[in-house]
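Data availability excerpt. The first of two example chains:
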Amino acid sequence: AEDGIRDSSVTGVQTCALPIYITSYFKPKAPVTGIDKKINYALSSGDINLSEIPQGTLNQVKEDLRQASANGQDLSTEAIKRLIDYRLTGATPKVGTLTLKPKDITQEKNLAKAGFGNLAEIENANNQTLINNLNGLGAANAKEPQIVGETLFNKFKAIHDTNQQKINELYSRAKTIDGRDAEFDAYKFSNTVGENLNKELKNKFLPAEIKGMVNDFATGKVPFNVQSKVQFQSIVSNAMMGATDGNTRAALKVVRDALENVPLKAGQQFGEEANQAFKDATRYTYNYKKLQDQVPALKAVAEGASPDNFFNKYVMGTDAPTFKKTYEQLDPESQKVVKDNIVGFIKNKATGGATDETAKISGSQLDKAIAQLGIKKLNTVFTPEELVQLKAIRNVAKFEQFQPVGAAVNTSNTASALFNLSSAAMKPLTSLMKEYQGRQALNISRALVNPPIPRIPTSQLVSPYSSVYSLLGGEEQQQ
């Protein structure tokens, strides 16, 4: 357009039927910024890292930016961020969905509604592309919550049964080893407990029944042998798990530590093997009960929970730390079941449960579903690359449906009706306008440059169809 006249026809023949601009010879040239630097800067204000973008996608974005900046124009940081989201999903970007400017969105939505170009088909294809993206992340393999619940219930029951069998084996071995009647030094044990409670100022917080049992051992009222010590350790451990007060737990821990380290009475030639066997059994039992407290799914199967609603209650319904601990107990196959059904949950919320053929993704509902799960849960399940993909799907869904304040998108078919009434007068130019407008909406180089180059509009002087064109959502040609 350096000669002041822009060729706006499809065939290369100049015409005055569409808006024309005269370009100023004194237009400023924006500095060309390094493309890699621009991409890095665009991503610095978002939640995607450059290293998480596949190389093929990155190469495509770089080529888009090279074309847009070929004439020395500066590149829009915000448009670059949106372009990356589109390239990550494989959806087709349009000028309006990259700029999010009211005038661009107004033009594209109204022209799509009036049947101009293939904009409506592109919107439909983008919707299907986003659905396919979710299916690819795992939604295609999602099952009904009841089926998933039964599958995971059986997995956690198998984990529980394995641990319970191990506990039974350890105690069975300990009970068959000679030396269960070997005695510990009850006097030293009692003194250690008392001294450490006083040192930590926790004496008054030790429960009375525990304090009474320590005294019974010290006075000889109850034999303090290998077997009774193990039973007492179990009582103390259960009391610790049930305690809600921090001082009480600290006082009980003093007793537990003293039990762990109490020596056998001097001069005995037996009991060490039995003592170690019981130590192994009690330590394993304690650690598994602690794991049950951290993973409600394990405690639930131990207490006879039903598979019904198991997935929603003990997996999806847990907080982020509990979810992470629960997820880590599963084998890779079961982890994939959880992951697939999380994506299925997101897709179901975003589409209202519709089938793929009729589904329309709601950007706002998809965003709510992701927010409901929370980023910590998603980080547990997805790789960084998969999480970037999910975020891109969310963003594109919102861009596709975004209607900013100031947009005049026609929702009453008046634009389509007006075009039909005017079609006889405009018949010679109908196909040309459709092709031209469709091409302009997909010319994303226009959206990637910032700011636009100043132009001198002359369309009102040369175009007899400018009024009809404006009513259809048209705007002055930008380049």
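And the second chain:
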Amino acid sequence: MDLGELLSAARRQWGDDAPAAAAGTGTSGIELGSVDVTGIAYDSRRVVAGDLFCCLPGSRADGHDHAAGAVEAGASALLVERELDLGVPRILVPNARRAMGLLASQLHGRPSQRLQAVGVTGTNGKTSVVHLLSDILRQAGRRVAESGTLTGERTTPEAPDLQASLASWAAEGVEVVCMEVSSHALAQHRVDGTDFAVVAHTNLSRDHLDYHGTMGAYAAAKQRLLTPEFSRQAVVMVEADGAGRDRVASARAAGLEVVALEAGDAPDWRGAPLDLPLPGRFAAHNAMVAAELALCLGVAEEEVRAALARVAPVPGRFESLPQVDGVRVVVDYAHTPEALASVLSTAREVAGDGRVLCVFGCGGGRDRGKRAEMGRAADEGADIVVVTSDNPRDEPPEGVIADILVGMERERAGAPGGEWTLLVEPDRRAAIAAAIDRARPGDLVLVAGKGHERTQEVAGEHLPFDDSEVAGELLANRDPGR
């Protein structure tokens, strides 16, 4: 598509929101209509001939500083927030990220209109809702693709990658794409230019404040999905304490048709409980959201109920390993205070008269403020706690652990021998081993924080580490005479 046609199409579709070539941005002697754009790139190292290179300002690097390299690699035009004179046409815009999403959608022929896209946001439950909804739809005979934590490096891809994937799925005959939409993606305009058949908001609790700064900014980023820019239909979970009613009211005021689901201790969906082979209230709440989304996509209620009775467990979400010597080990992705408290509550239900042992840590280089809250959740929800390293990234694990311990009141063990209820073990494998060794028949060991992840990020390296694999090996080798 030539650059002039691309800009004209964007203007016709999005009006005042569309990117436009500002006066004087065309290079002397070059008409926009004579410049062919065959792709959109945001990383100068991945530019190929014919790309429109988007100069994105960031916290660590500024794409404008790499524009010359992109032109040298064959970029036919630049999307910029400030003027550059590099011998190719420039499109000058106030927000390059916003424009990149709209142009990527247009270049790929607005692929989200050739299938049904479902966007799910919220602090916890996105992955589970996407997994459950996809399972329901496949059982109903639909061709489905998933996008999210379990399928890619990022929860939500950058706009050019997302639009290319949507176009590829549409060409392959995919009918529905079930997609996780993160707060980062909404703040960074990664899903701009995407038309969703229906969207959902699961819940909101503290997370990612290292990026958003305040809960207000975090909530506002999530709320962007519940606007007519993206969809006309929404499903919103209203939590037991009433949190979420403001999200419902705001979405309705914006003109969306909203289904508000009420969470509770014994949640029913449409007047009757769900037959769900997954434990815990949080699983039931996620299933309710998935069920309602399926109805919005035309699946009959009886089909939805039957499908949920047969759904497969979500990888890394209360994933239970085969028991050894009466000891159950569960791996879960819980990495926020609310999620950890919720999964510990479920663990308590499952354990019955047995004890709950919890192994967890917090990620380095992220919101420090939630670490003590995570410690408090573990302190209140588990009989025995082993605090360890999660993904320390560029922080010393001992510093992250010290922040966690601020929220804990129980006395820390000096050494793993003897009786203890709080152990600090920075080595994650040794921490899991200590909990499994301490467990008795009937106990449940919860390994929380990493779930489906297969690596541990330490000082810039991604080292192989799979909680399920490690815990399974340690459990299988457990001394049965313990």
